[in-house]
Amino acid sequence: MGIDKARAIDGSRRIPEATFFTLALLGGAFGILLGSSVFHHKTLKPSFMGIIILSAVIWLGILFLFLRTFGPPFG
User: Fold this and answer.
1) Rounded percentage of the chain residues whose pLDDT exceeds 90
2) pTM above the 0.85 mark?
3) What are phi and psi of 13, to 5 degrees?
């Protein structure tokens, strides 16, 4: 998010949103949310934030199902 924010300010070539969406679906949704907050980047774009938040909710659901099925990994 920081790199894309710097490129937006400089007018350089930006990172495509599809790249962020792919990273979110691969497990990076929470990092993208944190980066958006820290760099104040894309926080006012509802369509972008909605997809990232949905990805985070999906990962929380996967974690819940995993823990419910197999139990805690160290317990």
Assistant:
1) 95
2) yes
3) -65, 130
